[in-house]
Amino acid sequence: MKEKIAILDYGMGNLYTVWRKLRRMGVEGAVVSDGASLMAAGKIILPGVGHFGKAMENLKNRGLLDALHEAVLVKKKPVLGICLGMQLMARHSEEGDAQGLGWFDASVVRFRITDTLHHKVPHMGWNTIDIKKDDPLMQNIPDKSEFYFVHSYHIHCNEKSDILNDTQYEYSFTSAVNRNNIWGVQYHPEKSHDAGEIILRNFLRLSDC
After folding, report:
1. Which of 83, 123, 151, 154 is flagged as catalytic?
2. How confident is residue 2, by pLDDT bands cut at 50, 70 and 90?
3. How many Å apart are CA 5 and CA 30, to the nearest integer?
4. What is the pLDDT of residue 207?
5. Distance separating alpha carbons of residues 171 and 63, to the nearest angstrom
6. Which of the following is catalytic: 28, 190, 193, 197?
């Protein structure tokens, strides 16, 4: 890949796990923490593990919000949000009662589990996805493929056309989204072996949207 792949550092966890995975794939991703580097990238990965409210505070305090909106909404650079990075794309989260980036008409809610004997929170470990629409990110990914999850909150989309994957955990929740040049996955492709690597390679092969 000749174009620059920016992995955004906004003070939350997991970015170097993504960086190491890309490196093992033969792709040199650059960990960036400023708007100019973000704008110079061809594609953006927004990883993250942690608290929604704190993440949005970090993005604001580091002066990254305007650059993110410019890169994604105006320049239409392909972006992939992973775990918390996907949740940040929603309008609002219960976690910290915080406003998100607002790229999707969606909210982030905590799991409402009733059968606590069989379903623990956080939802942790391997689970399958149901593919809800054709999309280049899902190329060569069979329906019911397994991916690795670690999360206590999930996204709820008001626009059904934005839903790319669903996953069952006592009830069905949205585990991936897409609209135009914006993709988000609740699971961790960097920890999901062969299927996860296919997801990442599919993203890296995307042309400008």
Report:
1. 83
2. low
3. 6
4. 73
5. 38
6. 190
The catalytically annotated residue of 123, 151, 154, 188 is 188
Q: Are residues 14 and 47 in contact, defined by beta-carbon separation less than 8 angstroms? A: yes
* Catalytic (active site) residue 119: no
Can 190 be counted among the known catalytic residues? yes
188 belongs to the catalytic site: yes
pTM check: above 0.70: yes
Structure-block tokens of residue 19:
């960086």
Question: Which is nearest to 81 in space by CA: 109, 101, 61, 53?
Answer: 101
**What mean pLDDT comes out for the span 155-178?**
98
Separation of alpha carbons 110 and 155, rounded Å: 9
Rounded (5°) CA angle 27-200-43: 70
Instruction: State mean pLDDT over 146-172.
Output: 98
Give the 3-state secondary structure of residue 48: coil
Buried b / exposed e along 173-199 (16+ C-beta atoms within 10 A): bbbbbbbebbbbbbbbbbbbeebbbbb
Model pLDDT for residues 50-107, shown as the tens digit of each residue: 999 999 999 999 999 999 999 999 999 999 999 999 999 999 999 999 999 999 999 9
